[in-house]
Design brief:
Elements (H helix, E strand, L loop, with lengths): L9 E6 L5 E6 L4 E8 L30 E2 L30 E7 L8 E7 L18 H5 L6 E5 L4 H5 L3 H6 L8 H16 L5 E11 L1 H15 L10 E5 L10 H14 L8 H9 L3 H7 L21 H5 L2 H9 L3 E5 L5 H6 L8 H8 L5 H9 L9 H11 L2
Parallel strand pairs: 2-4, 6-7, 6-8, 8-9, 9-10
Antiparallel strand pairs: 1-2, 2-3, 3-5, 5-7
Organism: Fusarium falciforme
Enzyme class: hydrolase
GO molecular function, one term: hydrolase activity
Length: 404
């Protein structure tokens, strides 16, 4: 994907029947885009660190004035630290917890007659940063307009970092066992369900959906597939194929007990007592402002918020299941297809961010343990000879090699 051509944009209204009207952009004679379409209610206020809520029955898309929903501009993305959001056509780069939107690119045609294949796209960024608005290098417009792609691309916005992946036993207790983390993965799941139900209104084929992602998006694709496989069959699957570019789940994610260490450190920073009951801790954390939470992240020893083994979305024994005949049989029975790819110099980006601060084993282990459980961290580090040099750059490169 990639976009280097400028387009003569003009508004285009799409009638969704009893679901309202949305106003997108016709970019040229071959492509259209609808930006910032809600797929869930905002995860704000008391709904921070809770599973996403579906749009209510009878929900219609439109403006407060009774006109169409303005889908001509990209909407806010999940708050994140020190990351510039590049957009193909400008955009305001705003951040907000109200970020559960999809952006849809379609060919031009009769939506009532067309049945275009659909690709759901999950952006990357370590689960810490990223943007579904698609920077110029990933914008699919040119593929549709000049490449002849007769397919719909849907980019999903989901919660990230502390907002999407704070986890721990306190969250399990406070939710009554409904959730303990992985909120960003639950967001992705709800978006996929929304697409399955609604994409035919845009000319898409709900029975021909591919789930694709890069980096953290590829990790998410695998997690979504495994979650789907562990659920009882409920008719047609949400997707038929998966594309994973530049990542996979390399080891069993941290347990809730592992994640509790990070949760406790966060509470200590804001003087929230460990002895408090779970609901009191979460109430105090929910009162904090977005900027307070974003600014605390780099101050934490455990600064990277990622998916965890909660036995709700990600199950224990996942790696054993992946290597089992049971998984192979399920994959074949569902008729799935998979495409997996890596990228050159995979370690480069990892070695740049949150890498060891000192040329020591202790510093290396601390940073690797932001991603993996302690026992996995030790096994990963043991795969490489430790540097004899005190050159920090050498240790940073080792960190990058250890992570992917």
């Amino acid at each position: 994907m990639g976009n280097t051509i400028s387009y003569n944009e003009k508004p285009f209204d799409l009638d969704l029947g009893d679901k309202g009207v949305i106003r997108g952009l016709q970019l040229d004679e071959k492509s259209r885009r609808y930006a910032g379409i809600p797929y869930a209610l905002p995860p704000t206020g008391e709904h921070r660190w809770r599973k996403p809520r579906p749009l209510p029955p009878g929900y219609t898309y439109g403006s407060d004035a009774g006109g169409p929903l303005d889908a001509t501009k990209f909407r806010a993305v999940c708050p994140q630290k020190a990351f510039h959001v590049g957009k193909a056509e400008g955009g305001d780069g705003a951040y907000s917890e109200d970020c559960l939107f999809v952006n849809i690119w379609t060919p031009v045609g009769d939506e009532r007659q067309s049945k275009w294949p659909v690709m759901l796209w999950l952006h990357g960024g370590w689960f810490q940063m990223g943007d579904p608005s698609q920077e110029p290098g990933m914008d699919p417009t040119e593929l549709i307009s000049t490449g002849g792609l007769n397919a719909i691309v849907v980019a999903i916005g989901y919660r990230l970092n502390i907002f999407g992946f704070l986890a721990g036993q306190d969250l399990v207790e406070e939710s009554g066992g409904v959730s303990g983390g992985n909120f960003g993965l639950w967001d992705q799941r709800m978006a996929a369900e929304w697409v399955k139900e609604n994409i035919s209104l845009f000319g898409g084929d709900p029975e021909n959906i591919t789930l694709a992602g890069r980096s953290a998006g590829a990790y998410s694709v695998e997690a979504q597939m495994l979650h789907e496989f562990r659920r009882p069959s409920q008719g047609a699957p949400l997707f038929r194929r998966i594309f994973m570019d530049s990542n996979a789940i390399p080891a069993q994610p941290k347990s809730l007990e592992n994640a509790q260490t990070q949760f406790n450190e966060l509470c200590r920073h804001f003087r929230i007592q460990e002895s408090w009951p779970a609901d009191k801790k979460l109430a105090a954390l929910r009162k904090l402002g977005v900027q307070e939470l974003i600014e605390v992240i780099p101050k934490l020893t455990h600064h990277t918020f990622r998916p965890v083994t909660d036995d709700l979305f990600i199950h224990s024994g996942m790696m054993d299941y992946l290597q089992s005949k049971e998984f192979a049989d399920e994959f074949q029975a569902r008729g799935y297809k998979i495409l997996i790819g890596e990228v050159a110099n995979e370690e480069t980006l990892y070695s740049t961010y949150n890498s060891p601060e000192e040329p020591t084993l202790e510093s290396l282990r601390t940073q690797v343990m932001n991603y993996y459980a302690p026992e996995v961290t030790d096994r990963a580090i043991d795969c490489y000879p430790l540097p004899t040099s005190n050159d920090l750059a050498v240790w940073k490169k080792l960190f990058g090699n250890t992570l992917p």
